[in-house]
Amino acid sequence: MGATKRLPPSSSEEWLHLAVRYLARWDRTVAQVQQFLLSKGASATQVKQTVSRLSDLRYLDDEAFAGRWIESRMARQPMGRERLSAELQARGIGEAVAEKAVRTALSKVDDETLAKQALKSWQRKGRRVTVLQAVRLLRQWGFEEETIERTIRARFGHEGLES
Q1: What pLDDT is attached to residue 161?
Q2: Residues in the chain, pLDDT under 50
Q3: Rounded to 5 degrees, what angle do the CA atoms 103, 108, 114 make?
Q4: Less Cβ around it within 10 Å: N or C end of the chain?
Q5: CA distance 66 to 18
C-alpha cells in the first residue's frame, strides 16, 4: 500500500494554516516562509497573501526574528558584527534589517570586548589558543583586522603580533 500524495491547499485559509504549522516548529524569516510555501505548490499570489496575513497577525516579523536570533547566537558563541549580519542575510533577512538588528543588539558592547568574549568562549571548552589560532578564529568569527590586532596585543602582548 503506497502513500497517498497530498494535494496542495486550495483556499487562503488552508495556506495560512499550513504556514502557521510551519512557523510553530521554529522561528522563521519571511524568506523562509515564502520558500516553504512555494515548495508546497503555492502560487506567487498565494504566497504574498499568506505572508501578508501572517505579518498582520504578528506571526512573522523579520526585525523581531533578527533580534531574537542574535541574542541566541551570541549566547552560544560571541562573534563579530560582520559575521552576525552575514548569517542573518543567509537566513533571508535583508541587509538593512540585518545591519540594524546587529547595531541595536550590540549597541552597548564594543568590538574588542566581543572579541575577548569569543576567545574566552573558545578557551572555556578546554582549548588552548596560540596567537595564530586566535587570529584565524577572530577572522572566521567576523571581526575586523583592527579589532583583531588590538585584541591580540591585549591578550598576548607585543610579541603576539610578531609571531
Answers
A1: 52
A2: 162-163
A3: 80
A4: N
A5: 23
DSSP 69-90: HHHHHHHH----HHHHHHHHHH
CA–CA gap between residue 136 and residue 122 (Å, rounded): 12
- Geometric angle at alpha carbon 141, from 140 and 146, rounded to 5°: 90
pLDDT tens for residues 45-91? Answer: 999 999 999 999 999 999 999 999 999 999 888 899 999 999 999 99
Give me 83's grid cell.
Answer: 559575521
Q: What was the pLDDT predicted at 163?
A: 45
- Does residue 80 contact residue 144 with C-beta atoms inside 8 Å? yes
In this structure, are residues 88 and 68 in contact, taking their beta carbons and an 8 Å threshold?
A: no
